[in-house]
């Protein structure tokens, strides 16, 4: 599913499909718009180039699936590049846990799009402040997001659980009335990999 505003802007939406899309958006399926959910589009040209160069140096082939050894090799390379040291055993376990969360169906590989999404989030977290990312939302969207997250029960560590994250995402999409809005991609920061 896509936002009707995005598809209209891209010239792909037939008028008769609008109501069907809106109806589906408010079901358990919800909606997901590739254009809006694609956090890669939030990266600058330089950030994307740097990320792709790192992939190239690690011999990671774009658009192909990755197995756990390739992800480990990549993370070792990045660790050496950034911190001039190998990953610790504990860090390797974390990488394997991340791999498992990106491979919930236990296929033994992760899809390129999932890997790129996760690495793009890492770049954004590293180089962007939370405020700069929040400023990408409209004032109306910031108010909605604030009210949704303030309504969640926070645990003693002030961490949002996966269940609370899913609840916030569902609330976001159920309350989203403006079909022209294309800033919901920032809700991707509250993914199972990013929330407690």
Automatic annotation (TrEMBL):
Domain KIAA1045 RING finger: 1-46
Keyword Signal recorded: no
Top-level taxonomic group: Eukaryota
A UniProt-annotated Pfam family: zf-RING_15
Keywords, comma-separated and alphabetical: Metal-binding, Zinc, Zinc-finger
Zinc in keyword set: yes
Protein name, UniProt field: KIAA1045 RING finger domain-containing protein
Organism of this sequence: Characodon lateralis
Lineage of source species: Eukaryota, Metazoa, Chordata, Craniata, Vertebrata
């Amino acid at each position: 599913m896509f936002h009707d505003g995005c598809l209209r802007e891209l010239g792909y939406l037939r008028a008769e499909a609008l109501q069907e899309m809106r109806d589906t958006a408010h079901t358990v399926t919800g909606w997901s718009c590739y254009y809006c959910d694609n956090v890669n589009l939030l990266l600058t040209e330089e950030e994307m180039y740097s990320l792709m160069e790192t992939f190239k140096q690690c011999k990671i082939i774009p658009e192909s699936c990755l197995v756990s050894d390739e992800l480990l090799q990549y993370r070792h390379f990045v660790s050496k590049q950034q911190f001039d040291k190998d990953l610790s055993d504990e860090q390797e376990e974390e990488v394997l846990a991340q791999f498992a969360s990106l491979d919930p169906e236990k296929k033994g590989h992760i899809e390129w799009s999932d890997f790129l999404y996760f690495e793009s989030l890492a770049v954004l977290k590293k180089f962007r402040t939370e405020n700069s990312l929040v400023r990408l939302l409209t004032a109306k969207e910031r108010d909605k997001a604030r009210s949704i997250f303030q309504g969640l029960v926070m645990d003693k560590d002030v961490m949002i659980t996966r269940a609370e994250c899913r609840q916030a995402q569902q609330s976001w999409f159920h309350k989203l009335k403006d079909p022209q809005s294309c800033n919901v991609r920032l809700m991707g920061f509250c993914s199972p990999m990013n929330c407690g």
